[in-house]
Amino acid sequence: MGGALEDLIVPMLLLSFVAGFATTLGAFVVLWWPNLQPQKLSAFLGFASGVMIVVVALDLLPTAWQWGGLGAMATGFVMGFIVIAIADLLLTRLTRSTLGNGTMAPLRKMGYLIAIGISLHDFPEGIAIAAGAAAEVHLGWVVALAIGLHNIPEGIATAAPLRMSGLRAWKIILLTVIMSLFTPLGTLLGFGLLAISTEVLAQLIALAGGAMVYLVWDELWPEARKNSPFWAYTGALIGALCMVAVSFIHHH
């Protein structure tokens, strides 16, 4: 690893910590907001859905294709889809065994699933910060900004169903703090992987994409539309437009 790249590790790690902890900030929004109404939850989940789909379509998959080609991108994407689907099955059993078959279990499962999905994609996003900084220093900063911006609604999307399922506030905060650490861990690993294999990086990034698409398709969007279709679509549109703008800044 060259000296110039080594000089970037500490500042980019610090930046990754800040971007990662935006997830916890999102959780605080939910905890500060008493009596979260179904319409608000729909808007939050819709917003997170819009953010995730745009991130996958405009950032994760194109980057994976660019670095590893179609094969690496497709392999990683399918792996991500399968990994989160298996996690879904396991969590369904776990939450039903601990909470029964009432309304709380699906909410608890969804919150945990979103947490896993976000952690899975925070890891390669941390890698993306390293990769961006390695290409051009300002790109690392812009990628970190994009990650931080969409980590806030993702923190909301994680915390809202967990809060509604009755999970204690301190446990939600602890969970989001743990989740937030995946971004700097990814950045640290990214600087190491940059010297080894861009194809592995591509697969990791595509894996995150597959995980996020599964989450939106199977969990976020159905739950958002169930509560309030209007607010779900409104939130999704706002989330998508926000991330299109961030992605545009990122790529220009």
Please characterize this protein's 3D structure.
- The chain is mainly alpha-helical and 252 residues long.
- The protein has one domain (3-30, 38-251).
- It is built from eight helices and no strands.
- α2 (38-99) crosses α3 (104-135) and α3 (104-135) runs antiparallel to α4.
- It is globular and about 55 Å long.
- The mean pLDDT is 81.
- One of its GO terms (cellular component) is plasma membrane.
- It is found in: Cell membrane.
- This is Zinc/iron permease, putative.
- GO terms for molecular function: zinc ion transmembrane transporter activity.
Protein traits:
252 residues, mainly alpha, 8 helices, globular, transmembrane helix, zinc ion transmembrane transporter activity, ZIP
